Amino acid sequence: MMTTTTTSTLTPAAPLTVNHLSLSFGGNRVLQDIDLSVQPGEITGLIGPNGAGKTSFFNCLTGLYSPQEGSICLGLQHIERIPPTGRAALGFSRSFQHVALCPELTVAENVMIGLDRQSHAGWLSAFLALPQGNAERAANRERALGALTRLGVAEVADEYPAQLPPGVLRLVEIARAIAGQPRVLLLDEPAAGLNSVETRDLSNVLLKLRSPDLVLLVVEHDMDLIMEVCDRIHVLNGGRLLASGTPAQIQVNPEVVRVYLGDEDE
Q1: CA separation (Å) from 45 to 15, 118, 218?
Q2: Residues 16-61: pLDDT tens digits?
């Protein structure tokens, strides 16, 4: 039986630690005995070839998948049995590889969706102009504008997604992920589909997000971006942790070069 714990047991700067994590689907071993730690105040990269297990690992962290073995801890708190909604309440937030913004909502309204779990006005306020609901919506819009301002795209707050280029849409999605001031931010291939200028803007945004109160983990195939912004990098291959280290260490690791970084020259 799972015990319920509150966020008061956590410090704001709790690391995210995974020990002996293993995941299987039927007879297929997707993740095998993963040990790693993601520290607050750093940008941590997770890289590896297609099929290495990166998305499955993300899904274990957010609670979409339940590993058969191992533990996931935020600070001293075990969270591997806590469902996705509970992890969101603990401060987990993520983006997805494919941008998923609601086309009928403005940019600001899309970002406000990221604040729904922290809202208290109730469903009736969505249909009636009740004072509590009006005040909460106004406060959430201010927080959404704050997140957009932090990422440098506040000027598009009242525009619709169809009017905006891919790079701006990606920043809007990240703004939605950070609007609720998460403790853990998981970004799944944020540079996917971006051109070189948009990727440079994304790089600047990621560096701005680095905070002593935030665990930031980025899955990405753009090695220039990863090597530029990350403090530490973990490499998955075939569901196993192949290597961990600084960008400089990963770049010269012979096994990483052989199975991943060297692919571009073959």
Answers
A1: 15, 29, 5
A2: 999 999 999 988 999 999 999 999 999 999 999 988 999 999 999 9
pLDDT in tens, 73-116: 999 999 999 999 999 999 999 988 788 899 999 999 999 988 86
Domain boundaries, the chain: 14-91+182-266, 101-180
- Contact predicate 188/95, CB 8 Å: yes
Give the C-alpha separation, 217 to 242, whole Å: 17
Terminal Cα distance for the chain, rounded: 52
Count Cα atoms within 13 angstroms, Cβ side, for 113. 17
Amino acid at 205: V
- CATH class, domain 14-91+182-266, is alpha beta
The neighbouring-strand residues paired with 28 are 25
- Cβ pair 31, 57 in contact under 8 A: yes
As a whole number of angstroms, the distance between CA 266 and CA 263 comes to: 5
Model's pTM, two decimal places? 0.85
Here the tokens at position 167 are 């790079």
Which residues, at least 6 apart from 8, have a Cβ–Cβ distance to it below 8 Å?
none
